Known about the structure:
Elements: H1 14-36, E1 43-47, H2 53-60, E2 64-69, H3 72-82, E3 89-92, E4 105-111, H4 121-130, E5 132-143, H5 152-162, H6 180-189, E6 193-203, H7 212-220, H8 224-232, H9 234-249, E7 257-266
Parallel strand pairs: 1-2, 1-4, 2-3, 4-5
Antiparallel strand pairs: 5-7, 6-7
Amino acid sequence: MNKTMRRNPWDALVPTYERWMEPCSALLAQAALEQAAPNSGSDLLDVAAGTGALAVEAAERGHSVHAIDTSSNMVGRLTERLRPYSGCSAALMDARDLRYGDDEFDAAFSVLGVLDCGYRTAKSLAEMVRVVRPGGVVGVVHWADPVGAPFFEPLGRAVDRLNDPGVGEFTAPFSEYLQRSEIEHALIGAGCADVRVESVQVPCAMPEPETFVDEMHPIFRMHSQYLAAVSCHRDRFRRILAEEVRAMAAGKGGHPVARANVASARVPHHAGRVELAVRAPHDLAEVD
């Protein structure tokens, strides 16, 4: 491999993501499809599709689905899952540079995807709007809680219980687009109209306390504080984390429920496209 090439960290997450994250994201995908309500047999684009929570559900509903992701392993797995559905496919592609023509789809979706792209979010949303026909819909889903998936709640409490200055206090993975107002402004700035945002809660399956670390390691290793805690306090940290998972299962400190915002918007019929008008969330006035 060329030394200048960097492996996509999501390539190593396919089995773990499909087993533990997709059951939750599938419920969010269903909520997104029901809210946006695309016409029967629509041509849909799923951006940052992962293992296919929305793509497979949309294909089951009779839509023609094209799914993209930047992880080759995710795309490979999704290609397998979409094979039984006529007119559906998956491709390796960057959300900021969609290789599709203007007005090519009836709808474009991204579940737990483009709103977690930092400075790339604005461009990705603008691209999604560009490829959707006037009158079509754009749907996005993002966490409404800075910890994201409930898996990170016991992780955060375990990190804080270590009380190690070298590890530090837990830093939640997400900080942007957590408010409904932020998502609404982002979609309007990308050229959408008639924005609708709803907050939802869905259950999230959790590994057993004794196997929690092993099951979640492929996901948690993307978090620097987890790596520091495991490196410096391996046995103690595993014990504390198992205790926190057990407490969560017993209802102490919060049940495993995922909180997210589901949004949909219409692509206007007027001529012309917005190049880029999305401001960073920290520049937005809080209106919720």
